[in-house]
Amino acid sequence: MKIRCSAIGKIMTNPRTKGESLSATAKTHVQERYLELEYGIYKEFWSRYTDKGNMVEDEAILMCESLWEGMFLEKNELKFSNDYLTGVPDVITDDFILDTKCSYSAHSFPFFDSELPNKDYFFQMQGYLELTGKTDAYVVYCLINTPEEHVQDEIRRESWKRKEISISEEVEEFVRAAHTFDNIPKERRMKVFHIQKDEAVIEQIYQRIELCREYYLTLHSI
């Protein structure tokens, strides 16, 4: 059993019960991997947040080119793997890897954060760095206009929340303000977090995967 880099954060959560080696979150993920690998049963995951991210990913990568003047950033399609990990970084250059995170709305964009707000992304980048042999990674949060089909969904959702019979101009303005960002300078719509490879963390990840594999084997008899 290998762990996807995007899921490392799940297995690295610490157990709440003293004496336990894996958290409930880690065990749940291993159970999901067991069903995938043993029976081909995949957990379906979709949300409007991930859907927007997929739709605007190319635009986000293009936006990031302004951070490294004169550098062409190309979407990576190669899957990397070793004995423990597997993953597909967004962008790989000669000097670093880059992963974009597209905020769904202005309210979820880390305008004023000085540290990476999501610890899971730190672990994800450590995995990518290990797989690619790079030492530096950048997580770039991008604030990109939400596609119109999602804006319309949000307008309807907000109208329902307010129990309005018909969509009001006030609701439409409120929603569009949270999902349209042309009035914000481009440099303020990107938030960059630099992550360096940490060999000690990589070792901890490998140790945790070994524990996950031990738990995986117990699932055969449950």
Which descriptors would you attach to this protein?
222 residues; Lambda Exonuclease, Chain A; four-stranded mixed sheet; three-stranded mixed sheet; 13% strand; globular
Describe this structure in words.
With 222 residues, the protein is an alpha/beta fold. The chain has a single domain, classed as Alpha-Beta Complex (Lambda Exonuclease, Chain A). It has helices at residues 8-11, 24-39, 48-64, 119-132, 148-161, 169-179, 199-218; strands spanning 3-4, 80-81, 85-87, 91-92, 97-102, 136-142, 190-196. A four-stranded mixed sheet has the order 4-5-6-7. Strands 1-3-2 form a three-stranded mixed sheet, with helices on one face. The mean pLDDT is 95.
Low-confidence stretches: none
The total number of structural domains is 1
| Biggest sheet statistics | 4 strands, mixed
Judging from the principal axes of the Cα atoms, what is the shape?
Answer: globular
| Count of alpha/pi helices | 7
User: What is the CATH class designation?
Assistant: Alpha Beta
> Strand order, biggest sheet?
4-5-6-7
Given helix and strand content, the structural type is: alpha/beta
Quick gist of this model?
The protein is an alpha/beta fold. It has 7 helices and 7 strands, in the order βαααββββαβααβα. Helix 4 links the parallel strand 5 and strand 6 (about 135-140).
